Amino acid sequence: MKNKTPLLDALDCYLNKGYYPLHTPGHKQGRYFSPRMKEMFQSVLSMDLTELPGLDDLHQPAGVIAHSQQRAAKVFNANRTFYSVQGATVGIHAAMMALGTPGEDFVISRHSHRSVYSGLILTGCKPVYLPQRIDEYWGFVLGNDVKRIKEDILKYQQKALLITNPTYEGVNAPTDKILASLDSPAAVVDESHGAHYTFHSQLPVSALNYDVDFVVHGSHKTLPTLTQTAMVHAVRENYIRQISGFLDILQTSSPSYLLLASLDSAQEYLGSCGKSDWDGALEIANGLRRYIRQLPELELLEEEYVKGQGMSGLDKTRITVSSSKIDGGMLGRLMRKEKLQVELSGIKHVVLIVTPGVTKKEIALIKGALKNVSSAIPKEISYEAMLKLKLRTLVQALQPPEVILNPRQATYSNTKQISLAHAEGAIAAEFIIPYPPGIPLVVPGEKITYEIQKAIKDLLDLKIHFQGTFDPSIEKILIVE
Questions:
Q1: Residue 345 phi/psi, 5° resolution?
Q2: For the chain, what is the domain count?
Q3: Where in the sequence is the domain holding 313, given as residue range(s)?
Q4: Domain of 13: which CATH number?
Q5: Using H for helix, E for strand and C for coil, what is the string for 92-104?
Q6: For 323, phi and psi rounded to 5 degrees?
Q7: Can you give the pTM of this predicted structure?
Q8: How many CB atoms lie within 10 A of CB 288?
Q9: Together in a domain, 267 and 313
Q10: Lower CB count within 10 Å: N or C terminus of the chain?
């Protein structure tokens, strides 16, 4: 194991030397905490250290962190890999700042995560939205529509580009064809939900195989790392100096060594066990998919369906389930009643995520819970008509918005707060974001429509959680004066 986990080895070596901590952090390796905190976390608190001799420095890595990042680059077949202790969000911000020019266009997927839009605020770039395929039956965006992109190709060519792929539901667009069509001089793929694609041939193809500048992974979403960890992979060499500088600016000057250690551990573990682990995860996921097909009240999103809608494939470890009788919020609550905590509840569907952390021993319990959920769905009552109306409204609200100001201009404008009910035609000055998945329904600078107002009300009625608004109830919103 020597040098396979350079940071973990250095931490272990440091702790064995028995230094007394007359340095930050203030809890002194777990000595200064509440009794409950000590009881719950004592085994790891001693590793919560700072930039000490032998432990390297994330902002100027030249020792064990640099070595670990080099090893990660080999595991993911990247030119360079950078660690992030502030999630994929800071990786996306740094990539956009490296590739974008203030005031210029930045071509993006409209179904991008909120971090992309905050990246527009940081860069001052103007969004140009790629056409997207919205599925009216399921009520969510499947991905970018390559056919419609080619129909208006000059609008998107020769500009900085950010593609979001896959979606939260694991749907993959034909990213290779989109990239080939656009021939962008500067391109990044937000592959936050596909960090595991590298490790199995039955998973979709990772963007690391394409000619792009950067691929951003939300490592913690599917890999064995702690929440808030991510990796930024450089494929081309063009902008490595720029992104390194922006990561230095944007990341905390006090990075957590617990988070860094989990990334170091992951690169070694995935390099040796990634393929076999995801063999098992796919076996489990495919077994669950076969079982769900047998349950009378549940419907499964299938790969054949998304391919029929012009997409390239589906991550089988993302299990998207719905029922024609009840909405996604009710379905999620039924699952929680059976001790299954879902990743996402939408208007119609829920999303379940399988990783190697789901074991064969637990499958019987999960199947039993799903069977109970199917049995608990009322047979005599159907919300199908109501769901169709809400889905129709949501699909209308997801259409490309009218952009009056770029997000930075709107954010720095004079604002006022008005009732959402009276906001039709106004220019938004804040985000309105159903969360999860964190894809803004409204972005600063966009015109608010009646369809958006109605969709927000429908989602609130379904108890969907929102982020981004100063007023948590969303009865009032901020608009540009």
A1: -120, 120
A2: 3
A3: 275-383
A4: 3.40.640.10
A5: HHHHHHHHCCCCC
A6: -140, 140
A7: 0.95
A8: 22
A9: no
A10: N
Q: How far is Cα 435 from Cα 468, in angstroms, rounded to an integer?
A: 10
Residues ≥6 apart with Cβ < 8 Å to 252: 85, 86
- pLDDT tens-digit series, residues 58-86: 999 999 999 999 999 999 999 999 999 99
If asked whether residues 327 and 372 sit together in one domain, one would say yes
Asked if pLDDT for residue 1 goes beyond 70, the answer is: no
Pairing between strand 160-164 and 187-190?
parallel
Same domain, 64 and 101: yes
The answer to the question of residue 388 being in a domain is no
Specify if 390 maps to a domain.
Answer: no
Residue 407 DSSP SS3: helix
User: Rounded to whole angstroms, how far apart are CA atoms 308 and 286?
Assistant: 20
For residue 133, what are the β-bridge partners?
A: 143
d(CA 450, CA 99): 35
| Alpha carbon distances (Å) from 8 to 130, 257, 391, 480 | 43, 9, 49, 50
- Same domain (yes/no): 343, 238: no
What's the average model confidence in pLDDT over 17-27?
A: 95
Which of 237, 271, 305 terminates a domain? The answer is: 271
Q: First and final CA of the chain: distance in angstroms?
A: 61
| Alpha-carbon span 423 to 417, nearest angstrom | 10
- Can you read off the two tokens belonging to residue 290? 């076969």
Nearest to 233 by CA among 247, 256, 213, 249: 213
Contact 422, 416 (CB under 8 A): no
Residue 149's Cβ-side half-sphere holds a number of Cα atoms within 13 Å equal to 28
The two structure tokens encoding residue 254: 């006090």
Check which CATH number belongs to the domain holding 350 and give it. Answer: 3.90.1150.10
Residue 292 has pLDDT above 80, yes or no: yes
pLDDT at 398: 82
What is the CB neighbour count within 10 angstroms for residue 337? Answer: 12
